[in-house]
């Protein structure tokens, strides 16, 4: 079944926002690197099944492998490793707030590369920057503030932003579900090298039903489906516009964390989230539907 283009960002925002409380449920009982290994390898298996069902070409030319490795490391590997440690310390909603500073990094990187923005994009960006500034202030004054966890998530956001810009400007022949599969597989292999920094055992049992449900959601939805939808969205609209739309995820993610986990939400947070939501709505309402001309990624239909 094909998804209407206008529905795609909404679906991505809701599903990815749900991944943050789900991740925290799992990470309260499962060590961070173990969690990422399971979600990355599980997501890889899911995408392989999808590719085989659609008879999609899985092979990338050897000359593209250096770029593919770098893109996988930035877009998926480094982001997921750093964010797992951060989510384990921070509340799911607050972790989402820091992670989705990513759109602002995208815009700054694009500006350095000579990108020009229209008035509505600048208004959306300004609203987003004000919202993020309030978030940073709220997090810093919080009694449970962790500079290390917050810093890890900020670096994760920068890594994701850099990888997204590079992916949008890349010249890869592999695309669609096959691209997602390779990103997850490569990142799963890279994550193995981070096992020595995990102090807990690789597997820690028993895990409660809530923990298993969080792990299942993060693997099937957060990793496989959402990563695939994100890479597909980058083939449909401008990179900066796609990134700013993601600013709707922190409000939804925080709301879900509040409902599921009872995460705290103060007035300052609410105002910041409102500004982020305005920014995302402006970006979703206006802008070109055509992908940046520098990319050769081919759009594919979502089955």
List keywords for this structure.
303 residues, mainly alpha, 0% strand
User: What level of helicity do the residues show?
Assistant: over 70%
Pairing-aware structural class of the strands and helices? mainly alpha
| Count of beta strands | 0
Rounded to the nearest angstrom, the radius of gyration is: 18 Å
Unreliable sequence segments: 289-303
Query: If helices are DSSP runs of H or I spanning 4 or more residues, what is the number of helices?
Result: 12
| Terminal Cα span | 5 Å
Q: Report the sheet-strand fraction.
A: under 5%
Morphology:
globular
Instruction: Name the helix and strand elements from N-terminus to C-terminus, one letter apiece.
Output: HHHHHHHHHHHH
Pfam families: EamA
Subcellular location: Cell membrane
Keywords: Cell membrane, Membrane, Transmembrane, Transmembrane helix
Transmembrane segments: 35-53, 65-89, 95-113, 122-141, 147-167, 179-197, 209-232, 244-264, 270-287
Briefly say what this structure is.
With 303 residues, the protein is mostly helical. The chain has helices at 7-27, 32-53, 65-89, 92-99, 102-112, 119-141, 147-168, 176-192, 209-233, 239-245, 249-261, 267-285. Residues 8-136, 152-283 form the EamA domain.
């Amino acid at each position: 079944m094909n998804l209407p283009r206008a529905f795609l960002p909404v679906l991505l925002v809701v599903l990815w926002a749900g991944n943050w409380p789900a991740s925290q449920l799992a990470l309260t009982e499962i060590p961070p690197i173990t969690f990422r290994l399971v979600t990355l390898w599980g997501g890889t298996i899911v995408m392989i099944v999808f590719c085989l069902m659609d008879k999609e070409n899985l092979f990338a030319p050897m000359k593209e492998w250096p770029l593919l490795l770098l893109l996988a490391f930035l877009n998926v590997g480094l982001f997921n490793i750093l964010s797992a440690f951060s989510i384990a310390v921070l509340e799911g909603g607050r972790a989402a707030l820091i992670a989705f500073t990513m759109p602002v990094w995208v815009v700054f990187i694009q500006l350095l590369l000579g990108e020009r923005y229209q008035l509505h994009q600048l208004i959306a960006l300004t609203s987003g920057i004000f919202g993020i500034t309030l978030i940073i202030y709220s997090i810093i004054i919080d009694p449970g503030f962790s500079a290390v966890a917050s810093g890890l998530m900020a670096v994760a956001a920068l890594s994701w932003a850099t990888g997204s810009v590079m992916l949008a400007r890349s010249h890869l022949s592999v695309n669609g579900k096959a691209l997602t599969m390779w990103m997850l597989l490569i990142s799963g292999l890279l994550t193995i090298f981070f096992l020595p920094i995990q102090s807990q055992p690789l597997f820690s049992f028993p895990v409660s039903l809530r923990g298993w449900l969080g792990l299942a959601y993060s693997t099937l939805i957060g990793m496989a489906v959402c990563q695939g939808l994100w890479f597909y969205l980058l083939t449909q609209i401008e990179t900066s516009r796609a990134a700013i739309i993601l600013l709707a995820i922190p409000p939804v993610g925080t709301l879900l964390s509040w409902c599921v986990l009872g995460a705290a939400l103060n007035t300052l947070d609410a105002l910041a989230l409102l500004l982020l939501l305005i920014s995302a709505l402006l970006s979703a309402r206006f802008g070109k539907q055509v992908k940046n001309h520098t990319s050769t990624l081919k759009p594919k239909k979502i089955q």
